[in-house]
Amino acid sequence: MYEYKFVKVDLSNWNRKPKEDYQDIIRSHAEDGWRFVQIFAPATAGYGSASYFEIIFEKPLR
C-alpha cells in the first residue's frame, strides 16, 4: 500500500510558466522519501491551456 501526495503548482496568467520551479519541488520531496509519479495538468483554462498542474508523489505506508 502507498500513500499519495498532490502538490498544486499554479501557472502564470501572463506567460503560462510555473510560478514555482517544479524540479526543486521534486528534489525536495525526494529528500523526504517521496517518489515522483507524474505531472498532471487537469482542466484547461481559456485558450485551451491549463491554469495549473499537479505533481503526484507516492511512498509506501509504514
Quick gist of this model?
The protein is built from 1 helix and 3 strands, in the order βαββ.
What do you see in this structure?
The chain is of the alpha+beta class and 62 residues long. Helix content is 16%, strand content 39%. It is built from one helix and three strands; from the N terminus they run E-H-E-E. It has one helix spanning 22-31, and strands at residues 2-10, 35-40, 52-60. The protein has a three-stranded antiparallel sheet with strand order 1-3-2, with helices on one face. The radius of gyration is 13 Å and the shape is elongated. The mean pLDDT is 89.
Q: Uncertain spans, ≥5 residues at pLDDT below 50?
A: none
Sequence of secondary-structure elements:
EHEE
Gyration radius, rounded: 13 Å
Overall pLDDT score: 89
Main sheet: strand order: 1-3-2
Shape estimate: elongated
Structural class, by secondary structure, is alpha+beta
Number of helices: 1
> Strand portion, in percent?
35-45%
Helix amount: 10-25%
> What can be said about the biggest beta sheet?
3 strands, antiparallel
Distance between the termini: 9 Å
SS elements, strand count: 3
SSE topology:
Blueprint: E1 2-10, H1 22-31, E2 35-40, E3 52-60
Antiparallel strand pairs: 1-3, 2-3
Characteristic terms for this protein:
62 residues; alpha+beta; three-stranded antiparallel β-sheet; 1 helix
